[in-house]
Write a structure and sequence with these properties.
alpha/beta; Rossmann fold; 6-stranded mixed sheet; 4-stranded antiparallel sheet; globular; binds iron/sulfur cluster
């Protein structure tokens, strides 16, 4: 029986235009742009200068901080500039520009590791130095995730293959095309964590991936595939953990509090690739889709190519774009330029002729309760919206606004065209800033 959580909702998935399309490997563009912020944590310092020659896999920027992850060049060529450039978040971030020489010369010293013979500390050092971060969208440094506090008794690794956001099929294709790489990466992560059990959660709308991974998993490997009910937001960490284990992450807590570490499909695949080739995180799979795209596709691209390059590779646009989104339509970030680069966390680029989150601030809440019914965190989005709009942050905190996982379901379900999520996000930010300034 398919596992699930309470709340949430089945929403149209719009995945059919790319689900059966194999990943096409794209070479690279003339100019690659590498923002120095592609992770959660301390900002990086550039380690190259304008005019330097760089090679594939060479560090462009790094930091001494523990919670951080270096950025590497995905092409060989010349550093032409280091300047502020638009980041997927909408902010301007210092970025290294590299002109591709199309030689793809590999940086000296890049060679495969032998994870079977390495200690936990040595494995973690490779993960850190290879710039691996959560590729599902969060960008949390993987070496930190794989080092839970010593007082937490981790007994299970959960792999997130739910891919519940509409349109995105990057993880689905990865599971179909590289199951052995995924299982190898899982083995490395299990070794680092010292756990003997792993559950891979996959929604049943990806039956082919469920069957293939089940077939590939060896006897007594400790790894199992857990079919999940297709429902949004099934891939959210707390909902995924509950669906598979029935353990509830406490309010303000982390998966480690219930003995679990959760990793994304693409991230474990990257672990395997890095250890087996020595190459850091410099490529990723991106789904390019939406009703404006002429040829919706899944691409493997070197980081640093722009959205313009992706749109051209997908045959251009057939209609005028109303909204360009990095990520899915529910939790993704609206983009205002096609000159923004693909970063480590870019799982998809959507070009839509309509605005899925259009709202009307003048339409009153009709108290229909749909947002309450759908909220996977069992919150009261209509009140959170009201307190956020009126600036009553104390009341919003009392109603557990900080537990909101920003899944966007309340805004999606609202017939009154309210946008609870937008207002909740703003209020949450204010509360967090207020706490920091104390
Ligand atoms: S965005 Fe927050 S409040 Fe709205 S449904 Fe999701 S978790 Fe609930
Ligand atoms: S779904 Fe919209 S209209 Fe209905 S109660 Fe929630 S905020 Fe109000």
């Amino acid at each position: 029986m398919a596992l699930t959580f309470r709340g949430g909702m089945h929403i149209p998935d719009y995945k059919s235009s790319t689900a059966s399309k194999p990943v096409k490997v794209l070479e690279g563009d003339k100019i690659h742009i590498y923002p120095l912020q592609q992770h959660i944590g301390a900002p990086l310092e550039a380690k190259v200068q304008k005019g330097d020659l760089v090679k594939v896999g060479q560090v462009l920027a790094d930091s001494e901080a523990y919670v951080s992850a270096p950025v590497h060049s995905s092409v060989s060529g010349t550093v032409t500039d280091i300047k502020q450039h638009i980041h997927p978040s909408g902010a301007k971030v210092t970025s290294v520009f590299v002109e591709n020489d199309f030689e793809y010369t590999t940086f000296e010293g890049i060679k495969p590791y032998n994870p079977e013979k390495m200690s936990k500390e040595e494995l973690l050092a490779v993960v850190r130095n290879s710039g691996i971060v959560g590729m599902g969208g969060a960008g949390f440094p993987t070496h930190v995730k794989l080092s839970p506090p010593a007082d937490k008794n981790i007994d299970l690794l959960i792999i997130n293959g739910a891919e519940c956001e509409p349109y995105i099929t990057a993880d689905h294709r990865r599971m179909l095309e590289e199951p052995d790489t995924i299982l190898d990466g899982i083995g490395i992560a299990m070794k680092i964590l010292g756990v003997s059990k792993c559950s891979i959660g996959i929604e049943t709308n990806k039956k082919d991936a469920i069957e293939l991974l089940k077939e590939k998993i060896g006897q007594n490997s400790g790894i199992e595939v857990c079919p999940l009910k297709p429902k949004y937001p099934q891939g959210a960490e707390k909902q995924l953990i509950y669906a598979i284990t029935k353990r509830k992450v406490p309010s303000g807590g982390l998966p480690a509090d219930v003995g679990v570490v959760v990793m994304n499909i693409d991230t474990v695949a990257q672990l395997s690739k890095t250890f087996r080739t020595g190459m850091p995180l410099i490529k990723r799979v991106v789904t390019v889709s939406g009703d404006c795209i002429s040829e919706p596709s899944n691409f493997e691209v070197p980081t640093g190519v722009t959205y313009r390059y992706l749109l051209d590779a997908a045959g251009g646009t057939a209609k005028e774009i109303n909204k360009l989104i990095m990520g899915g339509p529910m939790m993704g970030i609206a983009q205002y330029s096609d000159e923004v680069p693909v970063v480590k966390t870019t799982s998809s680029l959507l070009a839509l002729s309509y605005n899925p989150s259009a709202f009307d601030k003048d339409t009153p809440c009709i108290r229909c309760g749909k947002c309450v019914e759908g909220c996977p965190m069992h919150l009261m989005p209509l009140y959170l919206n009201k307190f956020s709009v009126s600036g009553d942050l104390e009341k919003a905190e009392e109603y557990n606004i900080l537990d909101c996982i920003e899944c966007g379901l309340c805004s999606y379900l609202c017939p009154g065209k309210q946008s609870p999520l937008h207002n909740i996000r703003v209020a949450k930010q204010k509360i967090i800033e207020k706490r920091r300034s104390k």
